[in-house]
Amino acid sequence: MATLARLQARSTFLAHQYYFRNSAVDVFRKKEYDAAVKIQSWFRGCRIRAYLRYLHRVATVIQKCWRGYLGRQHYQLIVKLEFCTMKMNLYNAMAVRIQKRWRGYRIRKYCFNYFYLKEYLKAVSETNDAIRYCYQGFAILDELCDHTAWRLKRKNTTLFPVYSMLNTSSHQMCGFSMPGNLRHQEALEEFAEMKEREEKKADLEREEKKRDYQARKMHYLLSTKQIPGIYNSPFRKDPDPWELRLQKAKPLISQRPKVKQKRGVNISNRLACTSARSLPQSEILPPIDRKQCQGPFRDITEVLEQRYKPLEPTLWMAEPINELKMAREELRKQEWMRNINDNMFLPFSSYHKNKKYIPLMHSSSKYGPNSYGSQHFRDENPKKWICDKDFQTVLPSFDLFSKYGKLYSKAGQII
Amino acid sequence: MSQRQVLQGVMSLLRPLLLDVVPTIQQTAALALGRLANYNGDLAEAVVKGDILPQLVYSLAEQNRFYKKAAAFVLRAVGKHSPQLAQAIVDCGALDTLVICLEDFDPGVKEAAAWALGYIARHNAELSQAVVDAGAVPLLVLCIQEPEIALKRIAASALSDISKHSPELAQTVVDVGAIAHLAQMILNPDSKLKRQVLSALSQIAKHSVDLAEMVVEAEIFPVVLTCLKDKDDYVKKNASTLIREIAKHTPELSQLIVNTGGVAAVTDCIGSCKGNIRLPGIMMLGYVAAHSENLAMAVIVSKAVPQLSVCLSEEPEDHIKAAAAWALGQIGRHTPEHARAVAVTNTLPVLLSLYMSTESSEDLQTKSKKAIKSILQKCTYLPALEPFLYDAPPNILKHVVGQFSKVLPHDSKARRLFVTSGGLKKVQEIKAGPGSLLQEYINSINSCYPEEIVRYYSPGYSDALLQRVDSYQPLAN
């Protein structure tokens, strides 16, 4: 009993102590709880971070490999492209070289011969000088016309097609005969005298040659020591002049018939390449003493014709590639040259005035034109329609109307 | 009014005298009428109104040669004034009688008849056709072959008047074989005959290429070139007209003329005469040069350009200057070589001054402007272009600067010359709208030079430098 009383007396103290100790602990409970949470969360965080680091490393490796692969692919593409570009540039450069040569060759050979032009101009200035200073002697004129025509005929190329007409007309020019009345009579007389003298001289020479030839033929009639010839009659004082001629003459030897050298067909006449120096010309080839080449050969003329066929460029080749652009430029230049007024042509007289366009009231109001009366003629109000089907034809239409326009007669004009 | 009455009075007095019995009186009356009509158009009209013509025509058929001569003289005198009077003569049937007179023996009658026909045919194509229809042309060709010089002259002049109107008429004349006879007469020493013959040939040749070729086939070259050196001015003029008419048709014909030395002859002819005589020669050079660049080069080689520039500067008349400007433009427009040949003779400033001066006629201005444009397009001869930088108007300046911008990038000597002659300075001073073609050209010229030089020559540079001097603070040591 005493313990009970002691316990009971201490029970409130116990209760207070119990309560007090529990509440004292409560103060630190939160703190300790927070501390535990912090430690745990830190530890968890460390673990997760380590895991993340691992993941990062792995991802980096994968991405590295992939980017390397992509980059190498890209690089190969670039290298290929570069290489192709380099090759194309090389081809272009080579093609330009070939085209350069070819174009220069073609122009020089087929289109325009500079040296021919130079010679022509020289011939023209020579003729001009003749006209200027020697117009009195028509003969010199004649000669020069001959000379000009000859010089032009010598290079009878197709390069100057204009000269084809010239050749014919220069023939006519050179056929110009000495007319009767001349202004400068003295010049004509002088010239006539000169011509006469020349003619006489030529005649004399011809005679001389004839006599010489005769003397050579009659050589056997020369007098010998024993027998005097017919021209050396003993009854004459001095021998006949024919005798002396016979003495001087060389006897005629009958020759073997000359080997008539047949010239090889002059090839350059038939070819487009007409410069005589471009083909070797020899008259007789040296003999070849090995056996003949075997085989049927084509006719040499055919072969050469084919080989030296003149150029017929396609239309595409015949013009330069920027022909269109150049032609447009040319046209523009010509127009600029021709135009007296350089201002642009303005299409309307009030083009330059910046007037704003004011539309009609009729078409600019929001109460626009009503389509009733022009588009449709029935006043329709869809809201009042009972059903949405159109009217049906209950009665059949007349036969007459069904045959409308389909009869033979042309009165309906629909057939 | 009183003059009219006087005229009527005179006509009424002379008319009965034409029907007089005594032949001398008839002839003298006819002669008087002819002289009156010759003097004045009104009198000629009075002759026509006085119904004298039918009488004359009727008696022309029958009377002796003196009367015929006088009557033909009257007809000529009346017909020369106007086409209406000539039509009146044709209407009263005078053509047939005149053609009959052409067959007469007396050369004087033939000459008078041919003269009258020539004057009638001169006015227009219908009258010419009427003359041809009357069958005059073969007889005229026969007249040409007669020995009398005066008759030849008149017949040649009549043929020239007939063929000048239309190609068909010229063809009619050619068909009768007139060209051969005319060509033979070129060498006749008589200068008046030569005038008419050359005029006839040029009227024939001017219409078409075929006719010109026929005239050329008569082998007139190079004989015609001697006529260019004749003493008589009109022979020279007609000869150069003939050559011009032939040269203008096709390049082949011009080539023919060049090959016979025609260009040199024409150039000398231009040099030796003045005024309107030169004009056909100048035009001929222009036509020849216009056909192709080779022909233009041949013209240049014949030393025609200095002569043309002399003409351009010397001549007082505008139309001759215009023709010279046109010819120079045709020569210089083909390639840079040609433009250089023209520019070297210092004609471009003359052309520019003609274009700019207010006194020149519109035609001259237009032609010189075209010539300048066409030469400038091809001119790469810079010393000739430089004066243009200073005086040219803006539309021409643009093209001058354009030419500079084409040449300067490639030629270092030219660049140096451009700077030393002050051209670069002038170019900097040109004001151009941004983005315009002129500005582009100026930029391309500026890009040929280092920047310092461009800045040095830009206007206001000395002021900019002075400003920098003002604002410069020297470093305090």
UniProtKB/TrEMBL annotation, chain A:
InterPro entries: ASPM, IQ_motif_EF-hand-BS, P-loop_NTPase. It holds the Pfam family IQ. The keyword Cell membrane does not apply. It comes from the Eukaryota. Residues 181-212 form a coiled coil. Keywords: Calmodulin-binding, Coiled coil, Cytoplasm, Repeat. It is found in: Cytoplasm. It comes from Felis catus (Cat). Its main location: cytoplasm. This is Spermatogenesis associated 17.
Automatic annotation (TrEMBL), chain B:
It comes from the Eukaryota. Signal peptide: none annotated. This is Sperm associated antigen 6.
